[in-house]
Amino acid sequence: MTSVNYQSLVEKLSEVSYLNGVMSTLGWDQEVVMPIGASEARAQQISALAGVIHERMTDPRLGDCLAALEAEDSAYFDTLQICNIREARRKYDLETKIPKKLVKEMAGLSSQGHTVWVAARRDNKFSDFAPLLKRFIELKKEWAQCAFPGMDHYDANIDNFERGTTMADITPVFERLKAELIPLIQSIQDTHYQPDNSFLQGTFPVDKQEALARKISKDIGFQFDCGRMDVSVHPFCGGSHPTDVRITTRYQENDFIESLYAVIHETGHGLYEQGRMLEGRDLPVSESLTMGIHESQSLFWERMIAQSELFCRHYFDTIKATFPDNLQDATADAFYRAINTCKADFIRVEADELTYPLHIILRYEIEKGLFDDSIAVDDLPEVWNDLMMKYLGIKPPTDTLGVLQDSHWSSGAFGYFPSYTLGAIYACQFYQTMTNELSDVEKNIEKGSFAPIKAWLNEKIHRQGSLFTPHDLVCRVTGESLNPEYFIEYLKKKYSAIYPLGLE
Ligand code: ZN
User: Fold this and answer.
1) In this structure, which topology does domain 167-498 adopt according to CATH?
2) Catalytic residues, which ones?
3) Phi/psi at 420 (nearest 5 deg)?
């Protein structure tokens, strides 16, 4: 029998979930179809709705309901119910523990931050951005103090995106990556060799790009009756519900790889959302877990599957038939090599899978230093460039191509960056376990038969919702905690076959 208090909790949480769904649809609309003239009106609508959601989430009656439930005998609740109560408590505490004044100042600074950052980046003038950044770090330290009293301030910020994960977990893992990847990238540079990718240059009609991306997304398992694919400035995955998942991409006539792999990446996020447990879909238990786990799903499809030799072999004829003029002399093997080139460059979002982790480690070390005061904001351009030199052997010619390139700090999103690389490591661990548990994974990829792979991810990860912490989920699925060795091995094996490194 369900307690009256639990029933009341379900009603309150479901309402918040419906409102969040509306918010998400408004956000999607703004990025995809809204006329530019509606910006101001939309901002007011979003702000009004955000106020209503905040009110619901901090309603003292929700607090009373939780307190009453916590006083009941937990033996009466099942696992899903216990998770809903625990997650509701976590969110309620996070929302109510932060003083209104601080919430307001952070929100104001965040919207101002974007404008200031855009201008500073355009003008290549870090000193215009520095005062805002300093203030944001102060506010985020204050926030940490309120949200997680007694916890290290940067750990608290990491917890906001990857709960239960701290610097003590991340630092040794990143040290391992540095020890292995820096020399590996160096030896690739020393070969002075790059795979031929001339056939990826040229003109690729957008309608054909779209048809190809749509086909592959569908083949992988994206359900278009419960989702859509559209165009936006930056690709993302949004939507209001597991039955309404919206992915986006962007097209450039002279580059089909970018849009295709963006679609595959966002499809990975979309499959996670569509694959959530049916029970309690409007309750916290069914929600996707963390940024890192979400990213593990997008990277799983983008890199482990779609950047593999087998996948390229399966799709090459289709791709060639789509762009016959450009690819007539290319082979599947040449295509595989061309989409897996490694080149140290300045911009994180354009980085390949091998150099990408070093972009993240650099940001992680800087954030750590900003929070423990071992790095001063004013020194950031120099610190940034020194680390780029140390890790990738290149020095950005401008701050626009260096310290000012990412928007994250302008909105106070400290502790977010590590989740990208944690996601890549999780993806590799999941892939390894999957190949141990399922037979014929490689054969299936080569045949383009992805259903068993999707079903495995559905069962092991998507349907687990928020039942466990990322650490516990990874342990349950793979039998061990976060372990970078699989990722390192994967990269070494892959790139020593593409580049003449003499390692094998
Ligand atoms: Zn992603």
Assistant:
1) Neurolysin; domain 3 (1.10.1370)
2) 266
3) -60, -45
